[in-house]
Design a protein that fits this description.
Strand 1 and strand 2 form a beta hairpin. It is elongated and about 60 Å long. By secondary structure, it is of the alpha+beta class. The longest helix has 30 residues, at 36-65. Strands 1-2-3-4 form a four-stranded antiparallel beta sheet, covered by helices on one side. It is built from one helix and four strands, in the order ββββα.
Length: 71
């Protein structure tokens, strides 16, 4: 078991994919990947998308404060 950025990566081997891993966060979220490298790439992408989403909201609120952006 490996902890990576608030996710848990556990081995989940099968006959066809001996390097398969399962990514978990909490009790409700679970996803499987062919390798640990693919799992870590997905986790990094997930956090990058969250950062972009939060940045968009922050920029909009800052522009609204100085009255450049009006909706």
């Amino acid at each position: 078991m490996i902890k990576y950025r608030k996710f848990t990566i556990e081995p989940y081997p099968t006959e066809k994919f001996p390097d398969m891993v399962s990514v978990r966060k909490g009790k409700k979220f679970s996803k499987r990947f062919i390798s640990e490298v693919k799992a870590k790439a997905w986790i990094d992408t997930y956090y990058a998308e969250l950062l972009i989403e939060r940045g968009e909201k922050q920029v909009k609120s800052e522009l609204e404060e100085i009255v450049i952006l009006e909706e």
